[in-house]
Amino acid sequence: MCAPAGSGKTTALLQYAAAYPRTEYVAARPGMTIAELERIVASVPTNSQLIIDDLDLALPAAIDELLKAVVSCAPHAPRLIVSSRSCRLLRAQNIVARGFGSVIDRTDLAFDLAETQQLADRLGLTYDAKDLAELLHVTEGWTLPLTWILRSATEDTRRMRDAFERWSSRYGPLLIEFVAEHCSRDTGMRDAFLAALRDRAQCTQPVLAELAAAGCPVADVRGSLRPYRILRRLATRSLVKSRRAEPETSQPLALNLLGRFACRVGDRHVVFARRRDQNVLVCVALSPDARVTRQELIAAFWPDVPQAVAMQGLRTSLSRLRRSIADAAGCEAERFLQIDATISINLENATVDARRFSEHVEYGAMEERRGELESARRHYAAAERLYTDHLLASEAVEPVLAPHVREYMARFGMVLDRLVELFTQMRDLDAARTYERRGLPLRKITAALQTA
Question: Which residues, by range, are in coiled-coil regions (predicted)?
Fold first, then answer.
């Protein structure tokens, strides 16, 4: 079991030990030697299993010797379950590749939508689907902050709405301190991780790969590494407050593209001076990694205009766009929209419903390939709930955005097809028919588009 501190490893292992007979639990202590580990292993009865929690606290040489004994298939050796913040210390890739074990990682331990809802219900909190989605977005299901935020909400308003903002102002620095203390035994790695939180220039992929291997809170999102979203958000907020005395919003930019268009920061809507400015923002939001070049925007929105005129038109549009966001947010727009050689939306401080929809679709397909049909069904159902209507259904869609509309329509059709199939396999025919009826209008629209 390899995951950063605060992922719930110890809680899961203690619950496992209590639930299964002939299971021994031991918590490693700092500097534990191979002789001590061997005595623990020898004390476990035959046909039992042994849990060693926080094995990374033992001496590295002791960890190596213990794992060598495991893969040598020593007679009468117990089944071994170990936890560590660092996969590298456990040489997990070697053990898995040789068929001697498997890995439970941060994604397996993270809270999903159903588990977050269950915990919120047990705590007696009030919430809606948007509150759940926003909390999962900012925490990424990381056990420590997610449960901390929910427990904190029970102490004041008992509402999940804005629970992160209330919690972060009071407890956010403590989470950073926790990470600084626990993210790595290597002080050099710890300092490198804190530097990466403060400065984007330090967040190169090779550096982040080293930090992730050392057990720091680094997420791998579709092959791209980055620090956990909540830590970047807290670190950015702390850095800005130390540099400027002016008040700054802590609310994310929320961009709703499915169904009725809306763009707001907290309760304040972003008012666009021109429809073109709005469409430029939408184009950026729908692009890979929410990032486009200036030339890509010029080709999309000023295709038949002389280059100098097009460049001036883009600069003017970006300037208006930045001003509109700043007016709604009450702070500099750079918190949400970064404009330099490329134009990008800072997804650590912004939520885009269409991107969340796509993530659920991708995770659903991935889980289905792994044979995790119940998890796939939950992701597809979450995607279906997000798809309140077709992309930009309330807007006059420019030609450059029309392919995106068709693309999301096709994805939604696939989601409905998979839900019908999965619920049919579960013999829940009422649910299957519900999703089948949901797809009838979509098929008519698709047929009309093909005919046109």
Answer: none
